[in-house]
Amino acid sequence: MQPTLLAAFFEFSRTAFSMSAAILALLVIGLFAARNDIAQARGLDKIVALTNLCFAIPLAAFGAEHLSGAKFIMNLVPAYMPWRLFWAYFVGFALIAASLSIATKTQVRWSGLLFGAMMFLFVAMIHFPGAVTSGGRILWTIVLRELSFGGGGWVLAGIAMGGAHRPGKNLITVGRVLIAIAAIFFGVQHFLHPLGLPGVPLEKQMATWIPARPFIDYLTGTFLIVAGLCFLLAHKTRMAATYLGAWILLLVIVIYVPVLIGALADPSTAVKVEGLNYFADTLLFGGAILSLARAMTAVSPPSAEFTG
Q: What are the CA-CA distances from residue 171 to residues 109, 151, 159 (Å)?
């Protein structure tokens, strides 16, 4: 690495540094908390054992972003809301608390439930009005992304409430439908825009160093549509969620981690934060999908492995 690039990589950005530190801290905490589940799991169930970790790390990153960049984040709060700076800090602390709760599996029934409710409020107050007014695929992608995140939170809460028993079963059902709709929509977008970063189809394109870029998007789109239909129909949900979640996690490791490293090496704070957000968004979407696999594991008999 050239000296100038090395200097750029370590150039101080309070927001990027805070988000990176939060990711590393939750990685350690989450792996420690999940160590027994990972050790006892077999095959692809080891990926499912990472569900809470995949969910908690992005929440910590977003929480750190709110706390370190509150004066910018407050501009996203609707103008009719009083104390806009307060809400930016409040959401930051709430996300950090939820990440620790989910990572350590402590009171997840409340953290998952409240996180999901918060995502639905964000959609109702910020994203949905903007999508209806301005239209465009990116705004609708954000609406469905946030709904899938909230749905994943409710699935985790439903698991903590007993899974097969109400109200846990109802929360899991709502979460499953929301994640299904998002997966199908995202899958279609992959076929319409086959050079975008895979997973959550936003504006950023795959770097030219990535081989077979259209193939990766078409394959990801196929996985998303097929799995989304399985989720929607409640057919082989566990198997579909396990394989799709594993694929999304593979994309995070193989594509998004290098993209993140490149972004952190850029001197621009905006580029650093964008790279961190893309990484966290995709990892959280993977966590939401894996939550369905975990939910089906919780409600299915042991002999029903990978039958959904």
A: 10, 8, 9
Q: What amino acid is encoded at 224 in this protein?
A: L
257-284: b or e for each residue (b if 16 or more CB lie within 10 Å)?
eebbeebbbbeebebbbbbbbbbbbbbb
Residue with tokens 């949900």: 237
In which band, very low, low, confident or very high, does the pLDDT at 164 lie, cut at 50, 70 and 90? low
Residue with tokens 């370190």: 68
Per-residue pLDDT tens over the stretch 274-299:
999 999 999 999 999 999 999 987 55
Amino acid 121 reads L
Residue 252 CA: distances (Å) to CA of 116, 190, 213, 259, 282: 23, 16, 15, 9, 7
Instruction: Dig out the tokens for 225 from the structure.
Output: 């549509």
For the chain, the residue count is: 308
* pTM of this prediction exceeds 0.85: yes
Which helix (DSSP H) or strand (DSSP E) does residue 71 occupy?
Answer: helix 70-73
